[in-house]
Amino acid sequence: MIAVAQASYTHWLLREDVQPVNRSVGLWQLSRVYASVGSPQESLRYAEACWAISLDLEPFYKGYAAEAMARAKLLGHHEVEARTWLHEAETQLASVDDPEGNPLLAADLVELAERLKNVAT
Predict the structure, then answer these.
(1) Nearest residue to 31 via CA among 59, 9, 57
(2) Mean pLDDT value of segment 62-74
(3) How far apart are alpha carbons 89 and 84 in whole angstroms?
(4) pTM score of the predicted model
(5) What are the boundaries of each domain within the chain?
(6) Are 24 and 49 in contact (CB under 8 A)?
(7) Per-residue pLDDT for 121 more than 60?
């Protein structure tokens, strides 16, 4: 899973037509994969890069970058920071106009919020 995500991101970096959106998605994917395998430092590394590249993008991408930050912070046992980033992601979600993207981001944020409910602060 890690190798495939790394290969996908590398593929986009080598393309002449790579856009910040492509980089944002690739970095989010890497952060999510590392979170899935339980590697908080790597997940956070890619989440931070995703956030940085996504600042000038549409709310959908900023929302997912914030979601990646929240997930990485939760995995690293930084629950207060995770809640802050979840709130940022929810704020971005409120501005998402894409009828296809909105439910995707919303579902991921609900799942993350449920995980945070189960963690004592």
Answers:
(1) 9
(2) 98
(3) 9
(4) 0.93
(5) 2-117
(6) no
(7) no
